[in-house]
């Protein structure tokens, strides 16, 4: 959410860990998943460490964002595969069975929210925004969606 690993782990970690423990997951497994997943935040845009590095090193923040997409998605896919394998071995139950119609419905509901990183990265890469202006545009867009 924030693009900072410690903030993601601290902010969402307590909620995630409690939900996983309530669902029957081991505490160690829940903490491990939360710690591992929080490291993906700084890789996938928008990423606070990338903005800081880009400004300090005079490197294009937009190019850093684009460079983080594939590694971040690969990290997420590998983490999902690992969790699937471990969960099956330990006999953890699932909340719901995968369903394409449910996925499609959920995607439709989340589509406008999912455009936020597109606005940030696309705006920077197209030259429409500076990184600061892209952040402002994303905040305004989120406020409009929230209203």
TrEMBL record:
Record field: transmembrane: 64-86, 118-144
Pfam family name, one: DctM
InterPro entries cross-referenced by the UniProt entry: DctM (IPR010656), TRAP_DctM (IPR004681)
Domain of life: Bacteria
PANTHER family, alphabetized: SIALIC ACID TRAP TRANSPORTER PERMEASE PROTEIN SIAT (PTHR33362:SF3), SIALIC ACID TRAP TRANSPORTER PERMEASE PROTEIN SIAT-RELATED (PTHR33362)
Described purpose of this protein according to its UniProt entry: Part of the tripartite ATP-independent periplasmic (TRAP) transport system.
Identification of the protein by name: TRAP C4-dicarboxylate transport system permease DctM subunit domain-containing protein
Source organism of the structure: Vreelandella olivaria
